[in-house]
Design goal:
four-stranded antiparallel β-sheet, globular, mainly beta, seven-stranded mixed β-sheet
């Protein structure tokens, strides 16, 4: 059974940092692209970032570019999203997702995948003073 489990969310002050993790079981992340998404109350879910293990390509949405960093540790079968200089508008439930993507990101249009096969349950991130 495939599971993605997020952790590391919490309450942080504006300007602070937080790292959320996504631990995978039942699959090896090495052949998967990882995506991070978020959903704020009353809003639709939006993509934040993604990472292709095939060629190491990363992509970020403009709202988080230069503040968030996606990474992974294949030995631990875990992906991460480091979030710096957090703003109140970053408050949301953060989800990780995985989709089989063994080829270079150019095969998928040099952008994040549109659909993902597996999703985590989410972790709450609240940015407030």
């Amino acid at each position: 059974q495939v599971q993605l489990v997020e952790s590391g969310g919490g309450l942080v002050q504006p300007g602070g940092s937080l790292r959320v993790s996504c631990a995978a079981s039942g699959l090896s992340l090495e052949s998967y692209a990882i995506g991070w998404f978020r959903q704020a109350p009353g809003k639709e879910r939006e993509g934040v970032s993604c990472h292709y293990n095939s060629d190491g390509s990363t992509y970020y949405e403009d709202l988080v570019k230069d503040r968030f960093t996606i990474s992974r540790d294949n030995a631990k079968n875990t992906a991460y999203l480091q979030m710096n200089n957090l703003k109140p508008e970053d408050t949301a439930v953060y989800y990780c997702a995985a989709v089989l993507s063994p080829w270079p990101s150019s095969w998928y249009g040099n952008k994040c995948r549109d659909k993902y096969d597996y999703w985590g349950q989410g972790t709450q991130v609240t940015v407030s003073s």
